[in-house]
TrEMBL record, chains A, B:
Domain HTH marR-type: 1-143
Provenance organism: Niastella populi
Keyword terms: DNA-binding, Transcription, Transcription regulation
Record keyword S-adenosyl-L-methionine present: no
A Pfam family reported for this protein in Swiss-Prot or TrEMBL: MarR
Regions that span the bilayer: none
Entry protein name: MarR family transcriptional regulator
Taxonomic lineage of the native organism: Bacteria, Pseudomonadati, Bacteroidota, Chitinophagia, Chitinophagales
Amino acid sequence: MSNNQFKRGELYSFITGKASTAIARRLQKKFNSANLNLTIEQWSVLYHLWKQDGISQQELCNASFRDKPSITRLVDNLEKLQLVKRVPSESDRRMNMIYLTKQAQKLQEQSMDLANETLNEALEGVSPERIDICREVLQIVYDNLK
Amino acid sequence: MSNNQFKRGELYSFITGKASTAIARRLQKKFNSANLNLTIEQWSVLYHLWKQDGISQQELCNASFRDKPSITRLVDNLEKLQLVKRVPSESDRRMNMIYLTKQAQKLQEQSMDLANETLNEALEGVSPERIDICREVLQIVYDNLK
DNA sequence: GACATATAGTTGCTTATACAACTATCCAAA
DNA sequence: TTTGGATAGTTGTATAAGCAACTATATGTC
């Protein structure tokens, strides 16, 4: 310690992700209050499908930075909730393409509003410039380690 | 969206904490390679005890931003690993004071070195000024929501 | 075409988190 | 001194992550 003056005391919270934990908890509470029967993790999978529907589980792994078993089980649970459907690929029978149901499409606007609301609360009092720097630093961290 | 120009696409990774997940995975791999039989979560509890030994489970909850059941079970597992001991408080019989064992004291230096190494890898190419801004933003986020 | 290798997905096991409900103890006010 | 509320910790249940081992399918090479 330390070629970049990182203070030991704050190192710890960087690793454990206290900030993102706090955001996720707040968002989960908003989901619960709105009677969206949905975990943040499930929502994060839907988020990628709202961007592009009908992608494979492997693509969901890459997009959501999760391993294959995690996606298998998240898709299991999302299927139970009737929010997605597994459709075997015709061109490659190893693959499942995951499609949103109409019910899931209906959730997009409300849940994204709650997510934006949460982020606004989280970032209250932080200037756009500083948010941008923070975002860039977190992106570099991710690229350095992924 | 958006009184602070937060871009939707990056909003998501802020919430899911991709950066802190990447850091934690890297550190866990270093622990495994070094044959430290220790999870990141267990390490984060030890971290607070290295700062101050003999605190209560409730104080560990506050320090590590976890709820009581999480700490109960982490302390359970740390006791099984013979890294901490529960000692009933004499002044308040509801409380357990948690003490490090000698074995846990030995882990401090090696594990902190690996944590610092991980952070240096994570933050490679980021200027101290930008790290500092990022740290401050994450602290504000935490304070806004906690 | 046969075979080795890679890829997509699943299952089993362990650890951790979140929430609710519970026990035990403490403390303060009547 | 009793009683009611607060606090410390535990337990049950559900969801999720990480890792290894597994099946099925695809692909490239001989």
